[in-house]
Design goal:
The chain has about 325 residues and is α/β, with parallel strands linked by helices. It contains 10 helices and 8 strands. It has helices at about 15-35, 55-65, 80-90, 110-120, 135-150, 170-175, 185-190, 215-230, 230-260, 270-300; strands spanning about 1-10, 40-45, 70-75, 95-100, 125-130, 160-170, 195-200, 310. Helix 9 runs antiparallel to helix 10. Bound molecules: uridine-5'-diphosphate and magnesium ion.
């Protein structure tokens, strides 16, 4: 009998987790009853260092239904690492893994369709939202800008797909061979290859609890994705540098000519402008290069992506 595991990252989700787990159990039950294929299923919640009652709720829910299991991180390691931990654990026994956020903003009713696609031979099934009305104007447009920028830099990503997807065991295994500490999962998955397809759904607003991605974290996440998937920003600096040098040479020729032709000495505005613009460019360039050096440093350290403090429920 094949197994399907639903992996849920949860960080301070006490307000919503219980309802979400009940909903998912129902969906799994329907899947099992439909008997379209022969499999059993369970749910694995990864508590990403929550400071509220999330872990207690996971333990209670395990009592209520032993198909619900949990992993507790020793501290907050971030959404992406929680997903990696969950998938890594799940494929020890499961043939396929579905990842979904704890708030069920991504419609879990799309899961049966994902499973259909898996049974039909797909290794990766992307959940793609076909509406963004529930997002603010700002989130919609900033997301669009982000995808456009990455596409421009040559990074392939599935638009309007977040981390709601199904993956087969071999696809997860392939993903696990990507050893980056700061893995931007949705940017790496299209690189894996394997037969894949999309399943469309409507994204809903959060019914309880707050988004764990305030603006600051969202920008950090986007920047992380950009700089870990592309070295184009450093190339852009090189390009800017070359242009600046050419402009400098032109300015030199101009000033020499004006000196020899006896034209009046120009005021300080040109000086000020060039000092500030060049200074700014240099600082920005150093900052971007520093960012990449910082990345090299974190990778060199080879620290673990996460540390598990304890678990509840096993792989049954
Ligand atoms: N999450 C996590 N660790 C974090 C931040 C978020 O595991 O440090 C989880 C969170 O509990 C949720 C999912 O990641 O299950 C997505 O977060 P959220 O719904 O707050 O993001 P949004 O939908 O607003 O982008
Ligand atoms: Mg959400």
């Amino acid at each position: 009998m094949e197994k399907l595991t639903i992996v849920i990252p949860a960080y301070n989700e006490e307000e919503i987790l219980q309802d979400s787990l009940r909903t998912l159990i129902k969906i799994e039950d329907q899947l099992i009853q439909s008997q379209l294929f022969d499999f059993k299923s369970n749910i694995l919640v990864v508590d990403d260092g929550s400071t509220d009652r999330t872990w207690e709720i996971i333990q209670e829910m395990h009592q209520f239904n032993s198909r619900i299991a949990g992993i507790k991180f020793s501290r907050n390691f971030g959404h992406q690492n929680a997903l990696m931990a969950g998938m890594q654990e799940a494929i020890k026994t499961a043939a396929a893994v579905v990842t979904i956020d704890a708030d069920l903003q991504d419609d879990p009713n799309a899961i049966p369709e994902m499973v259909d696609q898996f049974v039909a031979g797909k290794d990766i099934v992307y959940g793609v939202r076909n509406n963004r009305e529930t997002d603010t104007w700002f989130k919609r447009n900033s997301a669009l800008l982000f995808y456009r920028t990455l596409a421009f830099l040559g990074v392939r990503m599935v638009q309007n797909h977040a981390d709601f997807r199904l993956m087969s065991r071999r696809a997860v295994k392939a993903l696990l061979t990507y050893q980056e500490r700061n893995l931007f999962i949705r940017g790496v998955i299209p690189m894996l290859g394997f037969p894949s397809t999309n399943v469309y759904y409507k994204r809903r607003p959060r019914t309880a609890g707050k988004s764990k991605y305030p603006l600051k974290k969202m920008i950090a996440f986007a920047w992380e994705g950009l700089t870990s998937l592309s070295i184009a920003p450093v190339r852009a600096i090189l390009f800017l540098g070359v242009i600046t040098v050419l402009l400098g040479v032109a300015a030199l020729v101009y000033s020499l000519l004006s000196k020899f032709l006896g034209l009046a000495v120009h005021g300080w505005s040109s000086l000020m402008i060039s000092i500030w613009i060049l200074g700014g460019l240099q600082m920005a360039s150093l900052g971007i290069i520093g960012e990449y050096i910082g990345k090299v440093m974190t990778e060199v350290k080879q620290r673990p992506r996460f540390t598990i403090e304890t678990t509840v429920g096993g792989n049954s």
